[in-house]
Amino acid sequence: QKEVEQNSGPLSVPEGAIASLNCTYSDRGSQSFFWYRQYSGKSPELIMSIYSNGDKEDGRFTAQLNKASQYVSLLIRDSQPSDSATYLCAVNQGNSGYSTLTFGKGTMLLVSP
Amino acid sequence: GAVVSQHPSRVICKSGTSVKIECRSLDFQATTMFWYRQFPKQSLMLMATSNEGSKATYEQGVEKDKFLINHASLTLSTLTVTSAHPEDSSFYICSATGTLNTEAFFGQGTRLTVV
């Protein structure tokens, strides 16, 4: 059974700090990896995607992927109170001919002013 | 990013009635659609996965006769909550992916209240 694990948190960081969110996955055949942000009462929105080992940077966000260790992480630099949300890690295997997207349960991030 | 439109955003219905929620991909062909339910302060719970051209695959514990899913075309999926009860009140969210290994795009969600 495919599993995606995240620490539920909450992860509390002060404004301006770096927030580090981690995710591990069980299926070695996973091909693509995504981070979504979900504000309370809203649906998730995609913030980062990563497909190959290494780092991918987009503004204040950096996604890191290590397929050998089966983990993917998200770093948020200069954290802002508006970053307070639940961050969902999603993993897509996709080798059955269709997308098989599995979500973790999410990590709640709280950024204090 | 691609747009997924979900309607209605809010619905209140009487116990025992049925409610249909629509999920449309507006600018891409959705080969796979997912339906989730989320209770307050809890994580997304996958209810079912629907691949174009085949019947929906329901997660364990989800009653397929109660939650009817129709992936009518590559741009439309519907979820019908039949004989709704107050315990079905929740936030229902659809998402859709296009080709393999692409990200899922989410609809805005539907807040269902059964009274």
Fold topology:
The complex is a heterodimer of chains A (113) and B (115).
Chain A: E1 4-6, E2 11-14, E3 19-25, E4 32-38, E5 45-50, E6 54-58, E7 61-66, E8 71-76, E9 85-92, E10 101-103, E11 107-112
Parallel strand pairs in A: 2-11
Antiparallel strand pairs in A: 1-3, 3-8, 4-5, 4-9, 6-7, 7-8, 9-10, 9-11
Chain B: E1 4-7, E2 10-13, E3 19-25, E4 32-38, E5 45-51, E6 57-58, E7 67-73, E8 76-81, E9 90-97, E10 105-106, E11 110-114
Parallel strand pairs in B: 2-11
Antiparallel strand pairs in B: 1-3, 3-8, 4-5, 4-9, 5-6, 7-8, 9-10, 9-11
Describe the structure.
The complex is a heterodimer of chains A (113) and B (115). Chain A is mostly beta strands and 113 residues long. Chain A is globular, with a radius of gyration of 14 Å. Chain A is built from no helices and 11 strands. Helix content of chain A is 0%, strand content 54%. The relative contact order of chain A is 0.35. In chain A, strands 2, 4, 5, 9, 10 and 11 form a 6-stranded mixed sheet that branches. In chain A, strands 1-3-8-7-6 form a 5-stranded antiparallel sheet, with no helix packed on it. With 115 residues, chain B is mostly beta strands. Helices cover 0% and strands 51% of the residues of chain B. Chain B contains no helices and 11 strands. In chain B, the strands form 2 sheets. In chain B, strands 2, 4, 5, 6, 9, 10 and 11 form a 7-stranded mixed sheet that branches. In chain B, strands 1-3-8-7 form a 4-stranded antiparallel sheet, with no helix packed on it. The interface between A and B is medium-sized, with 26 and 24 residues.
